[in-house]
Amino acid sequence: MTQVLIAGAGATGMTLAIELLRRNIAVRLVDSASGPFPGSRGKGVQPRSLEIFDLIGIADQMVAASSLYPFMKVHFGPFGFKTGSLGTHHPSSEARPYPNMLMIPQWRTEEILRAHLIKLGGRIEYDAGLAAVEQSGEGVTATLTSGEGIKAEYLIGCDGGRSATRKAVGLELGGRTLDGKTMIVADLEIENLDRTYWHVWPRTRGGPSSLCPLPNTDLFQLQSPEAIAENGLEKGILRATGKRVRRVAWQSRFHHQIRMVDRYRVGRVLLAGDAAHIHPPSGAQGLNTGIQDAWNLGWKLAWAVRAGNGDVLDSYEQERLPVAAAMLDLTKTLHVQASRERGDLTNQLALNYRDSPLSKGEPSGGIFPGDRVADRRLADGRRLFDLLRHTGATQLMRRDRRHVLVRPDGYVAQITDTKVMEYAGEAVRHVDVDH
Question: Is 102 helix (H, G, I), strand (E, B) or coil?
């Protein structure tokens, strides 16, 4: 019997699998698709996700494959004017080594995650969707579309908005569609279009259309109402923008929706990412919230497996469900108001778990239990994030103030006067921050 079965090998599923493999948990990762996702859909990676990738050890690859969000150019017939960017352009600092949202096509993000997964000994089983689920107090039996039956201690549904896992345990995505429009997202090669800017044509049929240059490729990402393709996508783009399409590399349709479940856990089955919450693209929250679901869940699953007790998994829903609800409210506001305001609203650096049952102790020196731990340079020149890059908890020992116990996911677990020797089933690493 495998310890954890993950359904869905997108960014959420792979991040979760990586976290489990780092902790020597036996994982099977299956996906109903025939191969890797080929499109750019979720192209924004937020600062907190980049910090997570730093702690995993792949941030440098993400940064190298990305760019800052470009400034925009709005076109009215033959005339165009330059305007602001949807992303910030702040300099990095010790506390914020990744201060800006970066643009990177989703397929590239997943390519980097997949390579790291394979490096850790993992693999993805394609053409292996989930057909049925049964569970008991001892484990889960999942039947795949291939007919194979898999027994696992836990099943995690990371299988997207149409999640077979979610349906198998009787959960529904509550919420609504924000408007009646069907939208097209596509990756295109375009003739003679300046790659310096994100181009917008506000008066195309059905609503604004845009072409955004994707970094380190020859492609632009199109976002447009479906009406542009009424007589063929290439013809519609030529009519709307005056630019010819050389090649359509990928395309898909979507609706602007805000939906989420009211539970993340049913017994030994848990949900993460789009299986639990669906966001409109405003603010680049969908992919990032899913990655952070996985980051929160991975170390807890490993703890539950090692301890033979799943009580800690209740904290996953308690911590992550309010975050998803808040992100849905934010992305709805950004969409309805067509707001360009981003930055601290969407970078997810201020999110905390202060109300979590795992957050214990009184605040000290402006730090609260449940807060994210910011990077810093210690007195001896060491970088704090380098010291957190392991699978267990870390206690920051401070001579003149109380000690700070940092969870494996980089949030404060406890502020205490005592030295903690074990947390989450692993020995605690102790770091003297005064020397």
Answer: strand
Query: Measured between alpha carbons, how far is 124 from 9 in angstroms, rounded to an integer?
Result: 7
What are 80-118's pLDDT values in tens digits? 999 999 888 999 998 899 999 999 999 999 999 999 999
DSSP-H helix ranges across 65-202: 106-119, 164-168
Paired tokens of 210: 């845009």
What separation in angstroms does the CA of 203 have from each of 196, 207, 228, 241?
Answer: 22, 6, 11, 10
* pTM of the predicted structure, to 2 decimals: 0.95
Same-fold call for 2-66+104-177+258-345 versus 183-254: no
238 three-class SS: helix
CATH for 183-254?
3.30.70
- Phi/psi zone of residue 424: left (φ > 0), alpha (ψ -120 to 50 degrees), beta? left
Contact criterion met (CB below 8 Å) for 5 and 129: no
Q: How far apart are CA 394 and CA 428, in angstroms?
A: 5
DSSP per-residue letters across 157-170: E---TT-HHHHHTT
What is the third-level CATH fold of 2-66+104-177+258-345? FAD/NAD(P)-binding domain (3.50.50)
Which amino acid type is present at position 45? V
Residue with token string 């992303």: 87
Question: Contact, 406 vs 367, CB < 8 A?
Answer: no
CA distance linking residue 410 with residue 94, whole number of Å? 16
The domains of the chain are located at: 2-66+104-177+258-345, 183-254, 352-435
Lowest mean pLDDT among 97-101, 128-132, 286-290, 336-340: 336-340
Give the span between the Cα atoms of 377 and 121, in whole angstroms.
33
Sheet strands side by side (includes 220-225): 79-85, 71-76, 198-201, 209-213, 220-225, 183-190, 245-254
